[in-house]
């Protein structure tokens, strides 16, 4: 049996390739950022060709670090930013346009139109999702309606469509020369086109969104052999795991039992709880989604609280305001003040996601006085992540009727000790950081390893999970609730801004 597993992690801001050993330790890794394209207010795009170049670059660099050969990898898993869509020509591989990113709000008017008579929950019973700019279906519809030659190519049978996992899987397995056109159940569950109960594209949904079935990939499980890589230096390696990034993190955190949950702190923040083999309908503004499916086994479902802007707010402070040299500097800047000085930052750049689903909301900084300085602003940026997580966690506990006694965390922001302590304080429960923090890539690797016999069972994976650090809550109850009450007031100030 080869010694290692590979994982391709294509995220919102960068692409990484990580090689793991059997214990889940990182053997080699490479990462490259890609351009964020903002053609108009609220529009967010990526260049698919650039993502493909970055993908090939990071694979080459990581494999070269340890002079690895294809025979050293037992399998390869893919995890990806979800909801982001690409349409491309299957003969040339050329994308029709830039990818429309999950944060993009250009379809806001279409959301209102689709919900005019039946409201935002028009498709929730079938999909587990409210009408929102977030999901893929309206993005696909927008490209078909607005990009030149989209309709003729679709009618000619030359057009393919998919989320980023589908695009990369097709490219890696040969592209125009026999590339496989597939997506897994977790990514399909984010399109608003899949029937959550039957795990197939739903004819009524396709008709409502006017999306031709022939451009969509076939839906498969999250852990099975899909094909072999055709590019160097991984030619011949089996690609055997695909999970959307947040479901991959749930899997990588070994949340295999109902009631187990994790929170990923990345560009956005995503709290997922395993609910077992039945989808739990939300009445509190959460999403019902597929957690994972292993081969022919029944799918496992999850409740999700999606927060659009968390780590992206730190980047905004760095890039748009120039208050930071690098993102990691925010912790020292936040610690330069004793408290938030009454300043609250509601980062509704793309509207508000869970539990509000307000596409009319926009970013607000509230509570400013002459006393406020850049330290207070930095602190408000970090605190916003913790407040939003509390809102989602409370909704999740109400929906699931399960009380969380601790929170497993992962993602880039968990290295920020100030944020982790404030998160424990504002939730009033312990916050746990695992030894292996790259749980998103690890989840994709685990899925591939199970499909190819590299791992024999879920128990093998559980043995790899261990705690690196725990933060206990220390905040006085009165202070905690005062902070949170002021936050909730600030959130209401962001409503009804976009007309």
Report on this model:
It is built from 16 helices and 23 strands. The protein has 499 residues and is α+β, with helices and mostly antiparallel strands. The strands form seven sheets. Strands 17-18-16-15-21-22-23 form a seven-stranded mixed sheet. Strand 10 and strand 11 (200-201) form a beta hairpin. The protein is globular and about 65 Å long.
Distance between the termini: 59 Å
Helix count, per DSSP? 16
* Poorly predicted tracts of residues: none
Major sheet attributes? 7 strands, mixed
Classify the beta-strand content into a percent band.
15-25%
Can you give keywords for this protein?
7-stranded mixed sheet, 6-stranded mixed sheet, 16 helices, 23% strand
Short recap of the structure:
With 499 residues, the protein is of the alpha+beta class. Helix content is 32%, strand content 23%. α12 (374-400) packs across α13 (417-427).
Give the helix/strand layout.
Layout: E1 4-10, E2 14-20, E3 26-33, E4 45-46, H1 48-65, E5 73-80, E6 85-89, E7 99-100, H2 108-114, H3 124-127, H4 136-146, H5 150-155, E8 159-163, H6 164-172, E9 182-184, H7 185-188, E10 194-195, E11 200-201, H8 203-209, E12 218-220, E13 223-228, E14 238-244, H9 245-252, E15 261-265, E16 269-276, E17 287-292, E18 300-307, H10 311-319, H11 330-335, E19 344-346, E20 364-366, H12 374-400, E21 407-410, H13 417-427, E22 431-434, H14 439-451, H15 458-462, E23 467-471, H16 477-493
Parallel strand pairs: 1-5, 5-14, 9-12, 15-21, 21-22
Antiparallel strand pairs: 1-2, 2-3, 4-7, 6-8, 10-11, 13-14, 15-16, 16-18, 17-18, 19-20, 22-23
Helix pairs in contact: 9-14, 10-12, 12-13
